[in-house]
């Protein structure tokens, strides 16, 4: 299965970087989901939750963000946010 290369960056530095099967984010006009092969897009983000499902398995990674933007081109996803706070996994 094809994967995405993802970089999530906040004003104070890199939040997460790696390969992923899926990225979901709170776009200005609704939730956006990105899979490999997605058409190029540039979207403003509203406050909400960014979720990454890592490639090769592993637990989903989640952050609460206050806004920013998301760019997708050639299976490269870049998420730039003002601030990101990790969301604790369910059950903790």
Automatic annotation (TrEMBL):
SUPFAM superfamilies: Epsilon subunit of F1F0-ATP synthase N-terminal domain (SSF51344). Residues 4-84 form the ATP synthase F1 complex delta/epsilon subunit N-terminal domain. One of its GO terms (molecular function) is ATP binding. It is a peripheral membrane protein. GO terms for cellular component: plasma membrane; proton-transporting ATP synthase complex. Pfam families: ATP-synt_DE_N. Signal peptide: none annotated. It is found in: Cell membrane. Keywords: ATP synthesis, Cell membrane, CF(1), Hydrogen ion transport, Ion transport, Membrane, Transport. InterPro entries: ATP_synth_F1_dsu/esu, ATP_synth_F1_dsu/esu_N, ATPsynth_dsu/esu_N. It comes from the Bacteria. Produces ATP from ADP in the presence of a proton gradient across the membrane. F-type ATPases have 2 components, CF(1) - the catalytic core - and CF(0) - the membrane proton channel. CF(1) has five subunits: alpha(3), beta(3), gamma(1), delta(1), epsilon(1). CF(0) has three main subunits: a, b and c. Belongs to the ATPase epsilon chain family. This is ATP synthase epsilon chain. It comes from Cellulomonas marina. The lineage of its organism: Bacteria, Bacillati, Actinomycetota, Actinomycetes, Micrococcales.
